[in-house]
Write a sequence for this structure.
């Protein structure tokens, strides 16, 4: 099967630079902000630069126990990054590969728009229509949780 893509735009009152940094640091924030979903998280390999791998371990609220994702690209000036799923989740069960690119664009009102592009290659014979909706919901929840943290903590990721 050929790769499929879905896109999402999320508006936020948080500044692009701070929300971008919070998403890059999600493995540290997630267990604190979403303890009902993320049980723990850790950097598995690297120092947070390109090539680094992080693991998020989930509670029973998720249909799988964990995901490992690799940071493939980061541009601190343009507030852009890309992660690829390297282990866990639906990898090998429903999808052959998946990656997500985030781009945070500053708005004139002081907030930003988070543009998300997820590309995945489904395994032959697997329909992922419900998974796309769940993926969009999960990404929106992540961005909104990071947004709430950034807005409640003015010194965080400044």
């Amino acid at each position: 099967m050929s790769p499929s893509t879905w896109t999402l735009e999320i508006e936020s009152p948080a500044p692009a630079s701070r929300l971008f940094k919070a998403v890059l640091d999600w493995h540290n924030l997630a267990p604190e902000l979403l303890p009902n979903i993320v049980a723990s998280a850790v950097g598995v390999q690297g120092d947070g630069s390109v090539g680094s791998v992080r693991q998020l371990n989930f509670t029973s609220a998720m249909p799988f126990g964990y995901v490992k994702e690799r940071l493939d690209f980061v541009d601190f000036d343009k507030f852009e990054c890309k992660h690829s799923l390297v282990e866990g989740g639906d990898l090998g069960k429903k999808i052959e590969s998946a990656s997500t690119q985030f781009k945070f664009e500053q708005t004139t009102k002081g907030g930003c728009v988070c543009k998300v592009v997820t590309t995945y290659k489904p395994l032959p014979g697997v329909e992922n229509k419900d998974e796309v909706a769940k993926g969009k919901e999960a990404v929106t929840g992540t961005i909104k949780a990071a947004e709430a943290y950034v807005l409640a903590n003015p010194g965080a990721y400044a």
